[in-house]
Amino acid sequence: MKSILVLNSGSSSLKFSVFQTDPAGAQTTLVAGGQIARQADGVAMEIRDGQGAMLVQTHEPDAGAAFDAEAALARVVAWLDTRSGNRQIDAIGHRVVHGGDQFFLPVIANPRILQALMALIPLAPLHQGHNLAGVELTRTHWPDAIQVLCFDTAFHHGQPSVARACALPRSITALGIQRYGFHGLSFESIVQKLPEVLGSGAQGRVLVAHLGNGASLCALVEGRSQAATMGFSVLDGLMMGSRCGTLDAGVVLYLLQHLQMSAEQVSAMLYEESGLLGVSGVSSDMATLLGSSDPHAAEALDLFVYRVAGEIGQMTAAMGGIDALVFTAGIGENAPEIRARICAACGWLGAVLDECANSVDLELIHARDSKLQIAVVRTDEEAVIAGHTARLARLVASPVHA
Fold this sequence. Notes:
Blueprint: E1 3-9, E2 13-21, E3 28-39, E4 42-49, E5 54-61, H1 69-84, E6 91-96, E7 107-108, H2 111-118, H3 128-141, E8 146-151, H4 161-164, H5 170-173, H6 184-198, E9 205-211, E10 215-221, E11 224-228, H7 249-257, H8 263-272, H9 275-280, H10 286-290, H11 295-319, E12 324-328, H12 329-334, H13 336-345, H14 355-359, E13 373-376, H15 381-397
Parallel strand pairs: 1-6, 6-8, 9-12, 12-13
Antiparallel strand pairs: 1-2, 2-3, 3-4, 4-5, 7-8, 9-10, 10-11
């Protein structure tokens, strides 16, 4: 049996999981997993075993500090050392947000690939550097482990060319300026689960709403990405926790030319000070906003729902109709009020919610008279990464590669 460590470093949290493979190396089983996450008043760490029992639960007050993904990763490595006596990790799978136009399949890390991916940090400044830093940090602890990189952009690689194009001069688009799409590992996870949830509807026109601190929609036809709301960068599309989403490019020009803001100031504002946080002035956390009596919090929620419903219309057009709407990720899985408000705004599409089913987070939440299926499906990006990592590790160990 082999042990696989999976790392998923986001803009406000670090998720990790430890899997074991069967003797053939084909099937993976979760042993333990958890996350270290930024909260309003500090940093929380939770670790559970493969059956969901709590192993570690801590909270360190540290209000206002930025999330430190490298420090969080060091804590995970320290816990693994304590828990397992530095048990050998045979392979490590990393979520990497941006693969650019070169990487659309999982790959084994090497210096050339890492250098190419470092060049993409400006396209995903909140994630890419943290993703890649995990390779070096884990390599110092497990130098013989196979390091596998899995890309969030890869799932969208087969989109129609018209869905990936930007209306810019060809001399610019030739430099790789195009719509890439993100959250691909999450969408891949959902596609794997859809047959059990939707039956034959899984092969229809399915719109997946990945709603979390980062948020995007993906239009699926026969399980393949046709369009996505995120484009060239993770700033595009839906309003998010602290990111603005789609914005008139003229606003950026105005900030630079007339308000004399620097490029660094504009970047910080768009990535870290906008979205739910910027509009509410209260928090980027959906649960906090839902519990707030501040009118600005209510405005932020109204705008979030409005933007999601509007983009659902656009994605529906890209698919030529819609047969199912699937909610996933932190908000999508855990905020029934937001799901209800989004579905109400999509009544024109024939979406009718079963309020009781929605309130208790059932898997299928549409009413009998709904014209489309509506579901809540828990994403499992780590399991997808573990599967890809096990496959590449198996290939490396095969006689052909010996």
